[in-house]
Amino acid sequence: MATLNSAALGSEPIGKLLIRQAVPASIGILVMSLNILIDTIFVGNWIGSIAIAAINVVLPVSFFIAALGIAIGIGGSSIISRALGSGKNEKALKTFGNQISLTLILTILLATVGLTFVNSIIPAFGGKGDIFEPAKIYYTVVLYGVPFLALCMMGNSVIRAEGKPKFAMIAMIIPSVGNLVLDYILIIEMDMGMLGAAWATTISYLCCFAYVLWFFLSKNSDLKINWTHFRFDLSILKETSSLGFVTLARQAVVSVTYLLMNNIMFHLGGEDSVTVYAIIGRMLMFALFPILGVTQGFLPIAGYNYGAQQWHRVRKSINTAILYASVLALIVFAGIMFFSEDIVRIFTNNPKIIAETPHAMRWVFAATPIIALQLIGSAYFQAIGKAVPALLLTLSRQGFFFIPLVLILPKYFGEIGVWISFPLADVLSTILTGYFLNREIRENL
């Protein structure tokens, strides 16, 4: 039986523990976000603004497949954290083995389907006109690496569940550093254009996978599984799937959002409008990294202490996480409001894009100061294994509010209707999450 040393999750002061978990997670998310940001900056400055739109078309497809790994990772890691908290070590090991098997089977299958129907998928996600050819080049190469990325994301969640946030951080840093170096070599030095950007991304995924594999094979990991743990256990699969479906559904809605937005923006303003949204989309991934880091750091703490029935520590972790994330959200909000034009100039020198994007970006980030409650609240239900409320709250922002708003408001207000849909959805989903979280705390904690 493996000896698992994650007991610090149930004994250290919550504030100190959350910082120790959240800082590496935040850095990891930051650097991982740079993976996409770097591609965007390189292709925007050395290939052209159309290339930015092309990458934006590919992202929802590749991200959805990679999200399978994230979903299986977070769903299984919730089980692992609670199993460790209650001393059920063998269940933790079986869960990890099942995560690996499930990730491999599903992501390879979806990548194969994605490559088979490439000519239909790209136009459906907005890759029309001049955008199609560069999008196809990028899509085809990146999809080969997506199963490796999915395994990395799955493994990263498990590393955090073990209480090893620094190793998880390094795993997320590796592909971004690799991508930066390879982008310079392949795009600038070798003049490979979109093909160079695609191979830089794919090779960086392989480097990350090699590191994650090394971690679990080395003495750094306490999850020492054997071949019997890869055999599917239906009860574990059911629990992993129900919890992981929350994350997968969220990413599916994100992919649908990209599909809708790319097509709506193309209809409203052509390739330039798709590029405006692409830049804002990068900032949504990048700028929120500290808030997402607190959310990721919060998950294993809440899950472990819930499994150990330390209700006071669970309440403390919720309050502390919301406080820390809210302060960080205010800082992000201020940065976007004051420096939006400077941010846009990093991506492109196209005067029309520079003129249109800052105003839109300010609208999109207008409700950022309140989003901490929505993120921590929905994450809490996932951490404690309550899949249904976790799913509903996770989908509330984009699925229940944003998509209907973005389908209705542009008909009356044009392009500005697209941008005001973002803060309206944030406000409505935060109110809903606050209600359910407050009820859960009063009744069960």
Lay out the secondary structure:
Elements lengths: L13 H33 L2 H37 L3 H28 L1 H7 L7 H30 L3 H25 L3 H25 L16 H54 L1 H19 L3 H37 L3 H14 L6 H13 L3 H27 L1 H30 L1
Helix content: over 70%
* Proportion of strand residues: under 5%
* Alpha-beta content class: mainly alpha
Counting DSSP E segments of at least 2 residues, the number of strands comes to: 0
Q: What is the first-to-last residue Cα distance?
A: 33 Å
The whole-angstrom Rg is 21 Å
Structure description:
The protein is an all-alpha fold. It has 14 helices and no strands. α8 packs across α11 and α10 packs antiparallel against α11 (about 350-365). It has one domain. The model is unreliable at about 1-5 (pLDDT under 50). About 60% of the residues are buried. The protein has helices at about 15-45, 50-85, 90-115, 120-125, 130-160, 165-190, 195-215, 235-285, 290-305, 310-345, 350-365, 370-385, 385-415, 415-445.
Short account of what is shown:
The chain is mostly helical.
Can you tag this structure with a few keywords?
445 residues; mainly alpha; 14 helices; disordered N terminus
